[in-house]
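Q: Could you fold this chain for me?
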Amino acid sequence: MSNLKHLLLFCLLAFVPVSNADVWAEREALSSIRTELAALEVLVMSAKARSNSNERTQFEYETLLADLRKIQAGIAHHLTVPMEPIIPSAIDALSESYTEHQ
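A: Sure. Below is the predicted structure, expressed as structure tokens.
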């Protein structure tokens, strides 16, 4: 019986580091995504600076930037408060249109 207890204890302890490692791997991946989104924001600003305001159809750069910032803020919030429950009414929806016709 003692061997069975030791075996069960060993099995339980074997899974703890794996799940803990998954949490840190997820946090590292989310942090990388946040960094990439910041770099993407710079590219969007560059494209905006090169856009032609006389075109009939304009891309809504500010809308795209606002959505990128919402995603970044959501990731940052999760990384600082990962155990907070999700309240659906508190989630900002992304925009659905990035083009404006004049």
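A (continued): The two ends are 79 Å apart (CA to CA).
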